[in-house]
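INPUT
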Amino acid sequence: MDIKAFKDAHKLINEKTYALGTIDKGYTNRTLYVNLDNNEIKEKPVTPQMKEKFIGGKGFGLRLLWDAVKPETKWNDPENEIIIAPGPVAGITAYSGTGKSIVVSISPMTDIIIDSNVGGYFGPYLKFSGFDALEIQGKAAKDVIIFIDGINGKVTIEEAPEEPLDSHILANVLTKMYAADEKDYRNVAVVSAGSAADHCNIGMLNFSLFDLSRKEVRLKQAGRGGIGRVFRDKNIKAIVCRSPQPKGDMLNVVDMNSIKERGQKFNREMREFDDDQCEMRTKGTAHLVEIMNEYELLPTHNFKFGQHADIAKIDSKVWKEWFTPRASDACWYGCTMACAKTVEDFEVRTGPYKGRKVLVDGPEYETAAGVGSNIGVFNSEVILELNFYCDTYGLDTISFGTLTAFAMECWENGILNKERTGGLELCFGNSDAALELIHQMSRGEGFGLIAGQGIRKMKKYFADKGWGDIAFMNDIGMENKGLEYSQYISKESLAQQGGYAMTNKGPQHDEAWLIFMDKVNKQIPTFEDKAEALHYFPMFRTWFGLMGLCKLPWNDVEPANNAETDEPAKVPEHVDNYLTIFKAVTGRDIDNAEMIRQSERVYNFQRIFNIRMGKGLRAHDAQPYRAAGPVTKEEYLSLQKQYDGQLKDIIGIDPEGKSIDEKMAATRKFREDQYEKLLDAVYKRRGWTRGGVPTIEHLQDLGMDLPELIEVVKPLLEK
Amino acid sequence: MSQTITVNGDLLEWTEGMSVSDVLALKKYTFKMLVVKIDGQLIKKAIWPETVIPAGATVQVIHLMSGG
Ligand code: SF4
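OUTPUT
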């Protein structure tokens, strides 16, 4: 790679110098705005109201986006923005999991707001360079790089015609191009997408980090909702930030000792308990593969089944063999959970990088399940190859897996055939077809181009062509709001059905993961119990996104006495760590109740933002029936004893003498009715109407009765 | 007539000398982050193998959340 030649081809479009400033109690108190229509670069102040009501991270992203767009703005309109915001806590290094950012935009998948959580160095580096958020609006005429020079206080927009798009190369090239020297590589962070994000709505963003042990650039993903597609539609090739080198207290916190004390205690827990608990340090989240299989929660064959006989071929023992653990397996400095596992020297066997040895970040659980069991692939090398190509091409592994699984079930049912797929034999387990599909996405051609728009658009396309019954495709197409489901079977957990489909952005498990509480422990039997869980956990987990925190250290290791606490599922000691850290960084003393209210303000704001865009109502919280029960006879028969038992004991219908069709219909009626009752209970608990609209009283109670929010909800409340 | 215990709301046949570890194995509860209570009383992990469950007991095996 001739980096000098790439650099020489750059053309400066605009530049602006700025005063570096200081960080005060976690905040820089300004954001950076870049407009690619007119190449404006400017600073914006962070108002006290933003800090008070929106806190940071996702809250800042939503506030800025609301002010930038109109109700009718579409994802590819120039006024849509991409906002990257670390929260106030992001950038400390004395507690694990403190380097996350949230990326916010209008999604091409859902046409509403998407927020995606990501590691890597960019978020903290943006803050060290002087900004609490980066807001990009407009579309460049040609491919550009936005460079934030946090050493010299300068922002540039540069035309960048020559560098290749695929992230494993691009992030490497740009790290070297913008660093002062080799020692400085670690201080450069790159945000990029990949060649497939030019064509596919499931495009994602890669956030780099320079791995000091491996001396290589690695990639973490803001995967969900197609922000990579928005990024490339704006003709952004990359965003690069060069930062002062991280050291002890970059945030000028109020009380460093308290952070250190909690951090050391947490680190002891990791050392003492991780090997007997989740083994995050050696297996990452891939430790979940066989657990989910054991509890019949691992999606196989498009979420039809929850278990597979070949699980041993892709379980965590296999991944542990592939991974090379190193001290630098953390996506931000100081994280001792260090779950960012990596496969080194993986030899690629297909596509443009065939024969090359590459570094693969992952697979995490979601990837192993998504591009593995859910598409019937039980071959670790194929999973690694799909993982690598999803990352470098800029594709979300979760959406890729779920939509490929859908296409494979369409194949199985004659909705697709060789003629319609252009020769791809998309049957379950056909790894060659899955790999070819991904290469087509990168080239923007063939069936890959159709599939890359996501399940919702595929369903319409197939129905318009007269290839299949839309009702059946709606049942088996695992999407809600236009976003593909992440990788857990929710059929036997009503609460998790809500945890998926009652989300603001679409079915990602990062709001609530309630399957054990509900299905296995049976701790939340009533609608009110489930509604309480579907209030508390989504609000609690929203808080991580306001702060710049990673969720995993909250509950993927637990303190020795956690079992003795009143509510072990909430891990009270770790919650207390977070309250302590928030106070130690910002000086603001809050309790558990205020923590939830901070999230509620932002959560309700996002709900109303969706309503403002014509969505965000009860109809949009509907789920595909595959998420709730058996769609096909094959599924029913696979668990016939269980389903027959439920008919008799729970629904009150004697299955004796009934046909499978009759039993399936009765099961479906019951389950769909249960979900409606759950919606009622959850909305009530969240302070919303039966239609899913936040009430004015609730907004007043939260201190979120902002005129712009009242204006949106009032007409709906008066109906 | 056989005797039973209740485990997370489901009936399970009770056998003489049945320990907490036996119940976890029978129920295939392989997840590692578990809290076990017998009739509301917390049983620490270290003594699961030797803790015998009485007939008719109500056993709670709380799987904590992880992943997700
Ligand atoms: S736990 Fe894993 S994902 Fe979270 S900050 Fe640490 S390394 Fe990153």
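end of record. Residues 4-63 of chain B form a domain with the Ubiquitin-like (UB roll) fold (CATH 3.10.20.30).
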